[in-house]
Amino acid sequence: MRATLLGGSGVPVTALGLGAAAIAGLYEAVGEDEAAATVEAAWDAGIRYFDTAPHYGLGLSERRLGAALRTRPREEFVLSTKVGRVLEPHDGGGDDRANGFAVPATHRRRWDFSADGVRRSLEDSLTRLGLDRVDLVLLHDPDEHGEQAFREAYPALEELRSQGVVRAIGAGMNQSRMLTRFLTDTDVDAVLCAGRYTLLDQGALETLLPAASAAGKSVIVGGVFNSGLLADPAPGATYDYAAAPSDLLDRAVRMRAVTEAHGLPLRAAALRFPFGHPAVASVLAGARSAAQVVDAVAQLRGPAPGAVWDDLRAQGLLAGGVPVPEPVLDGRLG
Predict the structure, then answer these.
(1) Which end of the chain is less enclosed by CB atoms within 10 A, N or C?
(2) How far apart, in Å, are the Cα atoms of 181 and each of 173, 192, 303?
């Protein structure tokens, strides 16, 4: 699978990356063997970019991903993790389902965007991963901590990059406004935008993506299914980690009717859509099983008739000025 460099960093990411939240029990438990098989399937499919975070399963994602990648040649893959939440031991029992993960509550999260918090978080992540380095470090969800993130956390990342501890830095969020500020006001290499550049929400197209293009920086797109609705628009589907509103469910159902009329599953259109913009370097696919990885790759590799996008526009389901991908993505996938 071909790779694109993140901004001017020299860090190459494959067009499709594996988002490792699901293997840490997002929504429902995932066994050790199933998690390992998921990462192995991604590797076999040519995926060489893997994304994780302490937040995912209270460190379980990092531990599982590190165990699966530890035997691979380190120079052959790119790994990103995140800072901003420090994990502290907790012996009070219970589980972490309130935060979306079906894992025991062995730790508690504490927000920390201080310089020391950034360094401690990265050190803890490397211990859990069992690796000597990560390639890309992202400030994770600094929505309510913006000023500290810009004043303390970002300079700490910049120092780590200048020291060669990490190769690239950025921020990952579920919004466009602050990510745009990172692109225009700092020297990040990339940003990870989750859920704001999808078939249902093109908020990132207003300022974020143009800012990335103007600055020669990269955007990694996550949440292309808007946490489930675009994968399977049915009653009970989730949108942004909550029950999907009826109007969005109806819109997704109408989109599915259009794409399936052209022989294209809605999930395939959702995965492909971000590649229409040149600032998008990679799309993260979250998967909890090897079968889901194989399916994601298959949905990207098949052709998508250009008439799909024309019909979505004709029915008012996609705005006319929104860029769309090429019918065949072989140029990105290799």
Answers:
(1) C
(2) 12, 13, 36
pLDDT digit string, tens, across residues 307-333: 999 999 999 999 999 999 998 887 777
> What burial letters (b/e) apply to 161-193, b meaning 16+ CB within 10 Å?
beeeebbbbbbbbbbbebbbbbbeebebbbbbb
Q: Which candidate in 49, 56, 154, 197 is catalytic? A: 56
168-173 and 238-239 beta bridge pairing: unpaired
> Rounded distance, CA 80 to CA 320, Å?
34
pTM: 0.97
pLDDT in tens, 43-79: 999 999 999 999 999 999 999 999 999 999 999 999 9
Q: Are 119 and 84 in contact (CB under 8 A)?
A: no
